Amino acid sequence: MSIIQPPTAAPPETDEARRAWQACLDIMRERVNTQSFKTWFEPIEPLHLRSGKLTVQVPSQFFYDWLEEHYGDIFTATVTRVLGKEASLEYLVRHDESALEPEPPPLPLQQPTEQLHSGVAAEATPTPGAGGPPRYDSRPSEAFSTFLNPRYTFENFIKGDSNQLARAAASAVANNPGGTSFNPLVLYGGTGLGKTHLIQAIGNSAIATRKARRVIYVSSEKFTVEFVDAIQSDRINDFLSFYRSMDVLIVDDIQFFSGKEKTQDSFFHTFNELHQLGKQIVLSSDRPPKELKGLDDRLLSRFQWGLTADIQPPDLETRIAILRKKSENEGIDLSQDVVEFIATNVNSNVRELEGCLISLLAKASLEGRDVNLDLARDVVRMVVGDVRSPITIETIQRTVCEYFNIPEDLIRAKTRKQEVVNARQIAMFLAKDLTNSSLKTIGLHFGGRDHSTVIHAYQSVEDQMRIDPKYQAHVLQIRRRLQVMGHV
Ligand code: ADP
Ligand code: MG
């Protein structure tokens, strides 16, 4: 990664501003999720760079407030990293016509502070091998950039069946780095399921509880780039001694080591050295290590020395808990139907879930809309494409049985128990109302009943709804459930 020096003379500034801003974006892209990045970072335009002061334009005052509140620290830290300690960032709101004047009145954003968020270096330490004087000494983590995102903590990580083992192992490792048999700890799973979060939580926790002095987080790609840089600039010893001086080495996405033999070799020796010294190694991968192609067998066998744990996609309950927690963090109170709607329809990974929530808030604020089911629908459609598949008779049966708490097979059986008859009739009624199925097909789905039975059920439900408000409320409630699930 190149470090751009602040200009010594005045303009031309726009190109420099663009380059500097691009370098900032490249760093920040890794620290926020894609949806936030698109919503909040891409609309920002670099204007000029003068004497280390980078001026960018934002679309509105609201936008600026949001940025400052949510990303002020990241911005400040990144700009200092890219442009040096003395650099600062200025924001201009687009409607402000004076914005393009040579010395416009800036909106003051906090100046670079000495101590930024924990884990982010106060000084712009160059990455190993990236130029500048070597600074690899034995100082603790506060003295260099750990590249840990302070947001990734165990407290912010929602537990669920899908991540139970991974989380427990991560927590054990954080409490006793290098001292458990989980060395290395390898977490694997699909994208957006929390691997990066969890492995960074180990680092953040180990630093906070002083269980480790020196922790570094690095992606395998960054490790590779630094390695190549270090060779080219003849600073390989610095590079190696830097990584070998860690108490906890966290390497993300090791699948990208694939096919890079020299880097793997360097990593292999670093791994061995740290392991022998009883230091902790934490790795993540998008698939089980044994399925990693293009990785040296020596490395693969090392990975099996410790513990390998997977993270699965979160179940509905966990997705609901994640949405609750995240909306709480944003200071908003989502209604149950909005939470259920999003959790039901956005079910592949947590990053998407998060993206959905952020878009929901952004849309509500920018368009001045209420956060309700309608808005949630629009956003979900935007994030995951069309909402769930059309409703089926099976879904209706399942929902009705869940609602009345009766076993699902009874609804198709011969039983004439009052509560089952009741549920069966309501399910038939909804099936006729909400699907395009013929009476005959509906009958077949209910244990091969006749179409006249379906007609009878339909009329009976209609009549009862008219005379019994409580009964009607039940039917409407079930309908609403189906609606929340995105089926209607
Ligand atoms: P991965 O590295 O597996 O692709 P990340 O760790 O980047 O996934 O997770 C994607 C986003 O989802 C992050 O913002 C992370 O904080 C969040 N996330 C993932 N799992 C959880 C969880 N169990 N609780 C809270 N947030 C989570
Ligand atoms: Mg990741």
Describe this structure as you would to a colleague.
The chain is of the alpha/beta class and 488 residues long. It has four domains: 13-99, DnaA, N-terminal domain (GMP Synthetase, Chain A, domain 3), CATH 3.30.300; 141-311, Rossmann fold; 316-384, Orthogonal Bundle (Helicase, Ruva Protein, domain 3); 393-484, Orthogonal Bundle (Chromosomal Replication Initiator Protein Dnaa, Chain: A), CATH 1.10.1750. Helix content is 49%, strand content 9%. It has helices at residues 14-29, 34-41, 61-83, 164-175, 195-208, 220-232, 236-243, 261-276, 297-303, 316-329, 336-345, 350-367, 373-384, 393-404, 418-434, 439-445, 451-467, 469-484, and strands at residues 45-50, 53-58, 88-93, 185-189, 215-219, 248-252, 280-285, 307-311. The strands form two sheets. Strands 5-6-7-4-8 form a five-stranded parallel sheet, sandwiched between helices. Strands 1-2-3 form a three-stranded mixed sheet. Strand 1 and strand 2 (53-58) form a beta hairpin. Helix 4 (164-175) runs parallel beside helix 5 (195-208) and helix 12 (350-367) crosses helix 13. The radius of gyration is 28 Å and the shape is globular. The two termini are 50 Å apart. The model is unreliable at 1-10 and 96-136 (pLDDT under 50). It binds adenosine-5'-diphosphate (ADP) and magnesium ion (MG). The site of adenosine-5'-diphosphate has 17 residues, from helix 5 and helix 12. Adenosine-5'-diphosphate is lined by residues 33, 156-158, 163, 189, 191-197, 322, 350-351, 354.
